[in-house]
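Q: Please design a sequence for this.
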């Protein structure tokens, strides 16, 4: 018996060591690749074969340049963006804009970066976004010491070594900010720090399609102070944006986004490479119809999120631990149902690592008296929880399928990611239902004992 236990223990240690080794190899090789590009001055712009490649960060930098210059009120004019972007690409150029659809306040926040040369601004951007993302995730995962320092360190390593994490580094994308703001919101939401949660929610509006999913949790939970803070912060951002780049850019932003997302006149939308249901609608429907279908799917996702939180609050599941599966479902629905979600946005899934904590597999909520007096089970469905943990742990490594699958077809790896996310949704839904069922059983037992 002892020999079998020792064998299992050594096997587990071997698997953990192999997992960490793979992550370290991915991280070191990718960082080395990025540093080599930087040393050759090819990180921002380079020619690979006969194809021009450039960092997405240039689009953000371009918005800051426009906002601080005489063309600020023409922020979203294609001709303006094309002129500024080609200036950054010189001596190369593109024939149509790499259109930046960012909300107006992003251009205002990017102004300080324009005080530096693009490469130096890029380094400052990476430093700030990585530190913020990791810091916010660390705060969230260490809340109530659900994970120890070694476990949190492993999550941070896995996040950095994942394809979305390194794509954000290579392209200067917003993945680290998305992860940080989602983590900041849930940390504030579950810790009763309304201002911090509101700050995360308001700043997350740079991805407006995501805000609605997380705002539902606050609205259904009647966190009015949180919502008032969020509205105030958002109002300040809008006022500053209107003052700097003009109110027409603020008011007409939704119309501009809908046009940019359905036209072939711009580069950069890449709807066939999205990780949400949008990739499926794009493959099956014409361009205009694909966006409309994606918006309908988003509405269905918002209704589902509302129902999940209504039932969660009605069942009086109030602590962060008790609401863990509602939180997980919200994040996954946000990714699956968003009409615009790219690979780097998958980094928000790192916030769900708190469900891997030892107590997360127990069905018994922490604030309730011990279960099992009436013979009810003390754990969540083992199949669903085991596969949830497997998917979440292997996710950082599995994301590299994007590079391997690209050889088969442009959309194949993204469809695979969508399928995995849908499976994780099913597992989280089963676990959430079990949590609600157990609450009813425990309430019935408590009522009978009275």
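A: Design:
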């Amino acid at each position: 018996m002892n020999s079998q236990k020792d064998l299992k223990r050594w096997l587990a240690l071997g698997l953990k060591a192999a997992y960490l080794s793979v992550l370290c190899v991915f991280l070191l090789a990718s960082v080395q690749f990025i540093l080599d590009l930087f040393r050759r001055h090819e990180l921002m712009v380079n020619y690979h074969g006969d194809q021009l490649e450039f960092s997405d960060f240039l689009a953000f930098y371009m918005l800051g340049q426009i906002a601080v210059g005489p063309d600020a009120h023409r922020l979203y004019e294609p001709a303006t963006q094309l002129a500024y972007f080609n200036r950054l690409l010189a001596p190369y150029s593109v024939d149509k804009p790499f259109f930046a659809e960012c909300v107006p306040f992003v251009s205002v926040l990017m102004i300080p970066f324009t005080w530096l040369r693009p490469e130096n601004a890029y380094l400052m951007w990476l430093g700030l976004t990585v530190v913020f993302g990791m810091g916010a995730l660390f705060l969230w995962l260490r809340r109530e010491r659900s994970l120890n320092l070694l476990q949190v360190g492993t999550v941070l390593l896995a996040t950095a070594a994942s394809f979305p994490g390194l794509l954000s580094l290579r392209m200067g994308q917003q993945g680290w900010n998305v992860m940080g703001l989602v983590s900041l919101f849930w940390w504030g939401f579950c810790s009763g720090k309304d201002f911090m949660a509101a700050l995360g929610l308001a700043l997350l509006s740079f991805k407006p399609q995501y805000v609605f999913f997380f705002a539902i949790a606050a609205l259904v939970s009647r966190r009015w102070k949180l919502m008032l803070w969020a509205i105030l912060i958002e109002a300040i951002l809008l006022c500053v944006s209107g003052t700097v780049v003009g109110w027409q850019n603020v008011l007409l932003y939704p119309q501009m986004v809908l046009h940019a997302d359905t036209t072939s006149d711009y580069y950069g939308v890449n709807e066939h490479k999205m990780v949400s249901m949008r990739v499926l609608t794009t493959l099956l429907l014409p361009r205009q119809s694909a966006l409309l279908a994606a918006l309908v799917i988003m509405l269905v996702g918002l209704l589902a999120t509302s129902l999940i939180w209504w039932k969660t609050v009605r069942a009086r599941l109030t602590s962060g631990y008790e609401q863990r599966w509602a939180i997980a479902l919200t994040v996954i629905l946000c990714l699956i149902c968003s009409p615009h979600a790219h690979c780097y946005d998958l980094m928000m899934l790192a916030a769900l690592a708190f469900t891997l904590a030892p107590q997360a597999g127990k069905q018994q909520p922490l604030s309730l008296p011990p279960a099992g007096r009436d013979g009810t089970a003390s754990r969540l469905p083992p199949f669903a929880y085991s596969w949830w943990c497997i998917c979440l742990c292997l996710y950082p490594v599995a994301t590299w399928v994007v590079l391997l699958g690209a050889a088969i077809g442009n959309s194949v790896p993204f469809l695979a990611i969508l399928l995995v996310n849908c499976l994780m949704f099913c597992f989280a839904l089963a676990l959430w239902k079990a949590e609600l069922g157990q609450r009813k059983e425990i309430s019935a037992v408590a009522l009978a004992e009275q």
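Q: Thanks. Anything notable?
A: The chain has two domains: 1-39, 131-356+375-449. The two ends are 45 Å apart (CA to CA).
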